[in-house]
Amino acid sequence: MIIDSHCHLDYEPLKSDLNNVLSRARKSGVNYFLTICTTDESFVKILEILKNNSNVYGTYGIHPHETKKYTKLSIDSILKNIKKDKKIIGIGETGLDFYYSYSEKKAQIDCFIKHIRACQTSSKTLIVHSRSADKETFEVLSSEMKNKNFKVLMHCFTGSKDFAHKLLDLGCYFSASGIITFKNSKDLKETFKSIPKDRILVETDSPYLSPEPLRGKPNEPSNIVYTLKCISEIKKETDLSMQNITTKNFFNLFNLKHP
To answer: Which CATH fold would you assign to the domain 2-253?
Structure first.
């Protein structure tokens, strides 16, 4: 059993072909999916997907790129949204992206903290996006952890080994995407080599970040097998063993009963 811990099933070209996308995934051994929210419009589509697919979980959150439009977002509104379906198991994706800076730093940090405090209130897991913002991401997470502990999944992790081990000290989990299969990802492979097996998940971030040998094509959950194989090789595990490890980690992280 494989779980795609981060995909965007509400995005095209996945949404309009969802039955076939999920069917191809099942044939590749992918049994569960976590489809990730980025805007309120995204959330409406996600609720529809959850209603029609028992093996799909969801989140509510505002992507850092979008935070300039959500300066009035409240912790209460986040908490209200996550109660709309029992399969909303996480909050995010939230975090900081200073690579593109589509939203100002202050707006991103303020929104990030609201998501964290909603996690602290609800005991949901936080899904974090961090790009070109290692220092600030760690500062926010570590500062907020001092107030009250919360669970964290670093999505599509591409940070340094040093950053990873600081985050490990906070209890974070790490999700590997198709990026780890790229030929120029030697440093990232070394970082994941150093991360304990019980803290690793796998994801596609589909329709983005297709793994080798599918780079340049739209990604979908069935392609997660390439990422899983790469992680298996890095951790010197069989594919089946790594499937079991990452699946167990997912259910532990999100406080779910293993079926």
So the answer is: TIM Barrel (3.20.20)
